[in-house]
From TrEMBL:
PROSITE patterns: INTEGRASE. Keywords: Plasmid. One of its GO terms (biological process) is DNA integration. This is Transposase. Residues 124-288 form the Integrase catalytic domain. It comes from Liquorilactobacillus hordei. It comes from the Bacteria. GO terms for molecular function: nucleic acid binding. Gene3D superfamilies: Ribonuclease H-like superfamily/Ribonuclease H (3.30.420.10). SUPFAM superfamilies: Ribonuclease H-like. InterPro entries: HTH-like_dom, Integrase_cat-core, RNaseH-like_sf, RNaseH_sf, Transpos_IS3, Transposase_IS3/IS150/IS904. PANTHER family: TRANSPOSASE INSF FOR INSERTION SEQUENCE IS3B-RELATED, TRANSPOSASE INSO FOR INSERTION SEQUENCE ELEMENT IS911B-RELATED. It holds the Pfam family rve.
């Protein structure tokens, strides 16, 4: 063994790394390399974790922070504490994509009729097709301007069960999305659809379609987005994780992107902490 290696063993416990390296005229990289060689199992384990953390992070569109990366590691059989995952992610310079928080813009053009709030912020359901929530969000494109994504979520699993992108925000758009949901799901009398008070959701055409399927319509209170916060949260995540990460040339490119995000990632691969770190598809399989 070289003299400097013997000296490290004698002095390392009593002195800082900086002091040891300065005294022995060593580069810190040489010191750390030696330390890793003396602890091969721990070093190898860390290298494996670094690789797996990086893979999980990029496989999930760079949207996972340490808690979800940690959960994915456990699901795959890798054992590590959350604190260790947080530490290794800091070393790798990995962090969840962060954007400005969504801000609600109050609509002053709502009539003074009374609209029932049947949901009353009770977002829990014991099985699918008890409570749905719907909303519309905006997607900018270069050549086609604003496009409008309408979605319906099943609150049991938080799965997006129907979605459609349109160049225009019309009543026809929300009716088409409702019909899409009813074609792919089992609809029984008593099902609740919760929406905000947008004009499309207050339309006669939508009310007629809801009555045909015996679906009860629930509305958010005026100027109170928290009544529909679960689907609002989904749209915020969609914007953060997909829309704000790129620029769409036109409607067709945006439409492909929203379909890929919802069907190829969100429903099938994105774990949700509120659902016990299950994906929406996995949550629905529990009662299938």
């Amino acid at each position: 063994m070289k003299d400097w290696q013997s000296a490290i063993k004698v002095t390392a416990s009593a002195h800082s790394v900086k002091e040891v390296c300065q005294t022995l005229h060593l580069c810190r990289s040489t010191y750390y390399q030696y330390q890793h060689q003396t602890k091969p199992e721990q070093f190898k384990r860390r290298q494996v974790l670094y690789q797996q953390i990086r893979r999980i992070y990029f496989d999930h569109r760079r949207v996972y922070g340490a808690p979800k990366v940690h959960e994915e590691l456990l699901r795959e059989g890798y054992h590590a504490s959350l604190k260790l995952v947080q530490k290794l992610m800091r070393h790798l310079g990995l962090r969840s994509i962060v954007v400005k928080k969504w801000r609600y813009e109050h609509n002053n053009y709502i009539d003074q009729m009374t609209y029932p709030n049947l949901l009353k912020q009770d977002f829990k359901a014991v099985k699918p097709n008890q409570k749905w929530a719907a909303d519309i969000t905006y997607i900018p494109t270069k050549t086609d301007g604003w496009c409008y994504l309408a979605t319906i979520m099943d609150l049991y699993s938080r799965k997006i069960i129907a979605h459609k992108l349109s160049r225009h925000m019309t009543t026809e758009l929300v009716v088409n999305v409702l019909n899409q949901a009813c074609e792919t799901r089992t609809v029984k009398a008593g099902l609740i659809l919760h929406t905000d008070l947008g004009s499309q959701y207050r339309s006669t055409a939508l009310e007629t379609a809801l009555k045909q399927h015996a679906i009860r319509h629930s509305y958010s209170k005026r100027g109170y987005p928290y009544d529909n916060s679960v689907v609002e949260s989904f749209h915020a995540s969609f914007k953060k994780e997909e829309v704000y990460q790129r620029t769409y040339k036109d409607y067709h490119e945006a439409n492909l992107a929203q379909f890929s995000y919802i069907e190829g990632f969100y429903n099938s691969r994105r774990i949700i902490s509120a659902d016990g770190y299950l994906t929406p598809d996995e949550k629905e399989q529990l009662v299938s």
